[in-house]
């Protein structure tokens, strides 16, 4: 069976990322920093041949996909099943409000996210099933090709449990990724090989969204990660 290569990419910074409000299906615009991030991402990928580019329908993902697609003559294929988790009552709420308004649900989100369900929204397991179904369909449709998928942080986190061969209960072992982070997967003989996980080194410190946000520092501290600015979770040399 021929090898299929998938670049799984998080969108550029959007307003919700900057102002720290929960934007799942809320369709916020890309920020000025996000536009610079997308430009850096496109420059990083300019020598990578893509046969097809898929995107979530939300503006932050589609804009990012457009920057990658420039000059390639490739139509971007929109897939509704690549959209971010439906946050239900959490949508457009300030992150600082969530543990106060929804203490039980927020504790699950933080400590046992595989059990979490958004109030009047989507559960993490529903998101996982949707993400895996989309991924498998895209791989099946594009056997032997190089594919770009632009989507969202929570969806990527859930999908990586499948790609890494984890039980979904291990979701909390998957680290969050910065905007425009790159994951590269080789699919062959019905197996996924994760070559690169969470690489946002193209941003540098000055364009990172999460590097200096308090929640990220706390996230690293809770997991015993000492580095102040993690920009590559896993990387194998000469992958491009």
From TrEMBL:
Pfam families referenced in this protein's UniProt entry, alphabetically: His_Phos_1 (PF00300)
Domain of life: Bacteria
InterPro entries (UniProt xref): His_Pase_superF_clade-1, His_PPase_superfam, PGM_Phosphatase
EC number(s) per entry: 3.1.3.-
UniProt keyword list: Hydrolase
GO molecular function annotation: hydrolase activity
Enzyme class: hydrolase
Entry-linked SUPFAM superfamilies: Phosphoglycerate mutase-like (SSF53254)
PANTHER family, per the entry: BROAD-SPECIFICITY PHOSPHATASE YOR283W-RELATED, HISTIDINE PHOSPHATASE FAMILY PROTEIN-RELATED
Name recorded for this polypeptide: Histidine phosphatase family protein
